[in-house]
Every structure is written in C-alpha cells, then in structure tokens.
Amino acid sequence: MDAFTRFTNQTQGRDRLFRATQYTCMLLRYLLEPKAGKEKVVMKLKKLESSVSTGRKWFRLGNVVHAVQATQQSIHATDLVPRVCLTLANMNRVIYFICDTILWVRSVGLASGINKEKWRMWAARHYYYSLLLSLARDLYEISLQMEKIAHNRAKREKSLSQDPLGYNVADEETEWLQSFLFLLFRSLKKHPPLFLDTVKNFCDILNPLDQLGIYKSNPGLIGLGGLVSSIAGIIIVAYPQMRLKMH
C-alpha cells in the first residue's frame, strides 16, 4: 500500500494510470462496437476515454521543463550514439510538448484562432521523431549486448575446444536466424530495463504512425499498444531501477 501511495503521489505515476485507463477504454470500445446491444457501453467507454484524455493534459503541462532538463543531461552522455540519439529525441519531445500545450490552450477556450489540425500534425510528427530516435538508441544498446554475449560465448566454446558459434555462424539461413534470435533473447532477458524501454517505444510509435498516415492501423491495435506501453511505463515509474540508464 505504501508503494502504491508513493506511486500515485508522483505526477508521472498518475499520468501512467490515466493513460492505461484511456487505452483500455479504446481497446474495449473497439472490441465491443461490432456486437449488437453494446451501444450504451460503447458510448460510456467513449466518454470515459475522452474525460481521461482531457485529464491527462493537466499532468503534461510541466513536461516541457522535464524534457528540457532531459536534453541538458543527455548532452553529457559519454557514448556518442546514445548522446546524439537521446539529445535529438529530447529536443523533439520539447517541441511535441509545446505543441501539446498549445492544443490544450485551444481546447479550454483560451485561444480560438489556433489551427487545431496543423498543430496536431506537428505534435504527431515530433512525437514520431522522438520515438524513432529512442528506438535507434535501444537498437544500438541491444547490438552492444548481443556482441558482448556472442564474444563471451565464443571464448567459452573455444576454451572447451569446440567450434565457436558466436561470430562464425553457419552459412545456412536458418542457423543464422536461430543464432540471431538466441542472442537477441539472451540480451533482452539479461537486461530488463532495455527490454521495457524497447517495448514501450515500439508500442508508442504505432499512434503517430497512424496519425501521420505512414502506417494506418485501427483503434484496437493502437489501444493494445498504448495499454502495453502504459504498463511498461508504470513498472518503470514504480521501480526506478528498471529505467534504462544513460552512460
């Protein structure tokens, strides 16, 4: 109970709970819409989804400052690839949150001359860039872990006077694929923060892909992706040791 209280006292924690509720409603609405006699339930889910989405905008108002701070921190990363990817990703997050704030100002009626569609597309575009760069960082970290595991495996098998399978995999495509999947599985299993960050970013990118028309999806898939991403985010907020560290 104490852990839950600490979690809900954090703005990020409340936002993740609201986000999980929002995408759960979207997923359930998609599943129930084709069924007869579920019109009232679907309408209630739609209203709840809209209310939760509006509530989340209040939690995101201060995220511009957090994104600026994250940008300043990422500049000091020692490794070049994470430094470039994270800095550019955080800069795009700053622009995304600025666009999101402008859309919030319009939604509450503080300014009526704002082109909602234009700012919505700008927000989606910079959100997409941010996630794409974050995924590039994740893939880089995965490649490092796979290389390390392959190297250790080759050394171990060499000491046992066996043919190493780490770098010198067989020419056959199936054996290459098996070796690749083995290294990928071991890398993600050994580093849960990297696994969570990759899953979260991959699931999140489905929404801007749909909004920008790059890959059209349906509310069910977006809702499922958003729910999985929200659960991963809840774990990261509740257990800070599960956050992918910058080095």
TrEMBL record:
<keyword id="KW-1133">Transmembrane helix</keyword>
<keyword id="KW-0962">Peroxisome biogenesis</keyword>
<feature type="transmembrane region" description="Helical">
    <location>
        <begin position="220"/>
        <end position="239"/>
    </location>
</feature>
<dbReference type="GO" id="GO:0044375">
    <property type="term" value="P:regulation of peroxisome size"/>
</dbReference>
<dbReference type="GO" id="GO:0016559">
    <property type="term" value="P:peroxisome fission"/>
</dbReference>
<dbReference type="GO" id="GO:0005778">
    <property type="term" value="C:peroxisomal membrane"/>
</dbReference>
<dbReference type="GO" id="GO:0007165">
    <property type="term" value="P:signal transduction"/>
</dbReference>
<keyword id="KW-0576">Peroxisome</keyword>
<dbReference type="GO" id="GO:0050873">
    <property type="term" value="P:brown fat cell differentiation"/>
</dbReference>
<dbReference type="InterPro" id="IPR008733">
    <property type="entry name" value="PEX11"/>
</dbReference>
<dbReference type="GO" id="GO:0042803">
    <property type="term" value="F:protein homodimerization activity"/>
</dbReference>
<dbReference type="GO" id="GO:0032991">
    <property type="term" value="C:protein-containing complex"/>
</dbReference>
<keyword id="KW-0812">Transmembrane</keyword>
<dbReference type="Pfam" id="PF05648">
    <property type="entry name" value="PEX11"/>
</dbReference>
<keyword id="KW-0472">Membrane</keyword>
<protein>
    <submittedName>
        <fullName>Peroxisomal membrane protein 11A isoform X1</fullName>
    </submittedName>
</protein>
